[in-house]
């Protein structure tokens, strides 16, 4: 099912359960660790995800595994959205992977610029920006394309307005949906949606949720991306800094409240960055399903 069909009824009434999706990444240990990922996803399948997105690899490391894609499709019977990055990539390589993706029956991809490699100064090859990748995929295929949105602006953008201009280029090039970067302040998401809509962008904007599971995770995420931590949240994290179980419990409670507020506003979907672990995401979904 394509993105346009998944989010067809995106004007959902408040307090109605939105479409649920998950993001996972290829395990660092390769195929030997695939069974561990399958165990986690089997725990999440009961929540009927509309899709599971599979990353291309963090830090510019294109370690996506077609074997994993095939297994998620055939063994777990999941609707997979494969990621494509264009930094250091060629049109020839992208077209090759498009054909492979289509041959598997996959209908959706997430098109990203990707992270700049740290060991070389320039590596653009045939693409420089994500909108160029979107345009190329659209010219070669009938795949439905999602792109990334940044409620607080991309870390490399001078400001949010500039970033939204880039987002409009991606949508005008053929994107069908936007999945946002994680955020911890719902007001920033609502403000972002309002600003994006004012620019004439009408495609679904799906909020990305990442439950806090450790103090180090927060330190890492806020150093890699433009993600602010509200004062009340920061105070709790500092209090539980050396109590990992309490941090995980707090992360579940905080994300559950976040999701309930988003559902009340009528969002059409919730996209969970699972970090390949089911526990926190499953608990959050149990919490919100009990009140929706």
Descriptive report:
With 292 residues, the protein is an alpha/beta fold. The chain has one domain (3-289): TIM Barrel (Alpha-Beta Barrel), CATH 3.20.20.220. Helix content is 43%, strand content 15%. The protein has eleven helices and eight strands. Strands 1-2-3-4-5-6-7-8 form an eight-stranded parallel β-barrel, surrounded by four helices. α7 links the parallel β6 (177-182) and β7. α5 (130-140) packs parallel to α6 and α10 packs across α11 (279-289). Mean pLDDT is 90; it is low at 58-63.
Put the structure in a nutshell.
With 292 residues, this protein is of the alpha/beta class. It has helices at 3-6, 34-44, 66-74, 91-103, 130-140, 160-172, 186-198, 215-224, 231-239, 244-264, 279-289; strands at 19-24, 51-54, 80-85, 108-112, 144-149, 177-182, 205-209, 269-273. It has an 8-stranded parallel β-barrel with strand order 1-2-3-4-5-6-7-8, surrounded by 4 helices.
Task: Present the secondary structure layout.
Elements: H1 3-6, E1 19-24, H2 34-44, E2 51-54, H3 66-74, E3 80-85, H4 91-103, E4 108-112, H5 130-140, E5 144-149, H6 160-172, E6 177-182, H7 186-198, E7 205-209, H8 215-224, H9 231-239, H10 244-264, E8 269-273, H11 279-289
Parallel strand pairs: 1-2, 1-8, 2-3, 3-4, 4-5, 5-6, 6-7, 7-8
Helix pairs in contact: 5-6, 10-11
